[in-house]
Amino acid sequence: MAVELSIRSDQGGLCNGKMTWFVVLSCMMAAMGGVIFGYDIGITGGVTSMEPFLEKFFPKVYRKMKEDTEISNYCKFDSQLLTSFTSSMYVAGFIASFFASSITKAFGRKPSILLGGAAFLAGAALGGAAFNVYMLIFGRVLLGVGVGFANQAVPLYLSEMAPPRYRGAINNGFQFSIGIGALSANLINYGTEKIKGGWGWRISLALAAVPATILTLGAVFLPETPNSLIQLTDDTERAKLMLQRVRGTEDVQAELDDLIKASSISKTVEHPFKKIIKRKYRPQLVMAIAIPFFQQVTGINVIAFYAPILFRTIGLGESASLMSSVVTGIVGTGSTFISMLVVDKLGRRALFIFGGVQMLVSQIMVGGIMAAQLGDHGGIGGGYAYVVLILICIYVAGFSWSWGPLGWLVPSEIFPLEIRSAGQSIVVAVSFLFTFIVAQTFLAMLCHFKSGIFFFFGGWVVVMTAFVYYFLPETKNTPIEKMDRVWREHGFWNKIVGEMDEQTKIEAA
């Protein structure tokens, strides 16, 4: 069962391929790496709003929330220890991503995915069994190692397995999987919060082992990508057979030649992290840093990590706050699915810009309502809390069909093979670094900026939308091994890499 697609690049070359069930099933299994990431994001915000969890591990925060009637609404949850619980995972992920780069290049995408699943599984077990805060945070560190390896390898795996014409849809499946994981976590939190005895948070944390087990066992049976096989071995016949199986056709010689050429260049590069800073790769390096940075300063982690806390800040109860997180999770997952359907038709730039405008408008309105209606004490009355919830859903939808999935898609498809693993490691490292910074500082920023926190992130949305408009070329439908041409045809980047054009033509000849 396969839908045949004849994919012609603008270069004039023919890339034959079918969207086969082999590709679909392989990518679905690999995308479980997104589920573990999303589950952790969703579960963290939920358990940190549960009173039994706070009372056991963060008693000062619990007493401040329950007994201190003088403290501002915006400052009830301001605790460096509490934010350390959230952000410790991302420090570990930041460090792990660089080790993952070497393993992914030397041994392939599959081993990195396997290691990621195994480390996350161990972290889930520790978290569910934790009896003190140190055990809890050590479990978070193992979760971070798992996510670091998975996030480094899975987007590469998806982009390399996908036919060019449907690469956007398949790679956006990673963000869709993150959404599925977060939504599942929100639903579980809503249920476990109602368990009598106050131990429901243990179930929430321990159930992270379920997607981790599926990923770990599934990775054992995953096929390696043709790109990686060629990079790892000189056995081009084996790579050709895999490419024929992946594309569902025997006519793969044109694409195979591109992969062999890219691999021969890759094998001459001993130090990819030194290579990537050269002028030839300047556009890719800028995007590897800018896109994950901008993705984190959209303010999405205000919602992802702390949505239940935020909803409690504006006056909703514990159960209502968790249900509000479920609603935003459903909106985010549905919006990512829409992005999967349209990204290869509308293109990356259009979704980036439209989503940016949508996020900006909703952030300004949320900040305005909170500034006008929420003081330091009490809650928001007159139904304004639910207006805020609707506006946050609009914001989440904007992120989920733009910067959410495209923040992983675009970096994974722009690197040539010789720097691909290093480039993706930089993307993951920058993402985790700024996720850590935002996670570590948000509760303090909420305390000091109050409603102004939404205007702060809104300002960044303006900057990133302008960046996309002026500096990001369109990459849809371009074969991944011929992506260098989009920079030479771009008005700004051509001035930097255009001098390499003649050399490229000579090599092609």
Describe this structure in words.
This protein is mainly α and 509 residues long. It has a single domain (21-500), classed as Growth Hormone, Chain: A. It contains 26 helices and two strands. It has helices spanning 21-30, 32-47, 51-57, 59-67, 80-107, 109-129, 133-161, 167-192, 200-206, 209-221, 226-232, 236-247, 253-266, 272-275, 282-296, 300-304, 307-313, 318-346, 348-373, 384-400, 403-414, 417-449, 452-471, 485-488, 494-497, 501-508; strands spanning 2-8, 14-20. It has a two-stranded antiparallel sheet. Helix 5 runs antiparallel to helix 6 (109-129). One of its GO terms (cellular component) is membrane. It is a multi-pass membrane protein.
Descriptive keywords:
509 residues; mainly alpha; 3% strand; Growth Hormone, Chain: A; two-stranded antiparallel sheet; disordered N terminus
Q: CATH superfamily, called what?
A: MFS general substrate transporter like domains
- Proportion in helices: over 70%
Computed CA radius of gyration, to the nearest angstrom: 23 Å
Strand order of the largest sheet: 1-2
Protein name: Major facilitator superfamily (MFS) profile domain-containing protein
Domain Major facilitator superfamily (MFS) profile: 26-476
Keywords: Membrane, Sugar transport, Symport, Transmembrane, Transmembrane helix, Transport
GO molecular function: monosaccharide transmembrane transporter activity; symporter activity
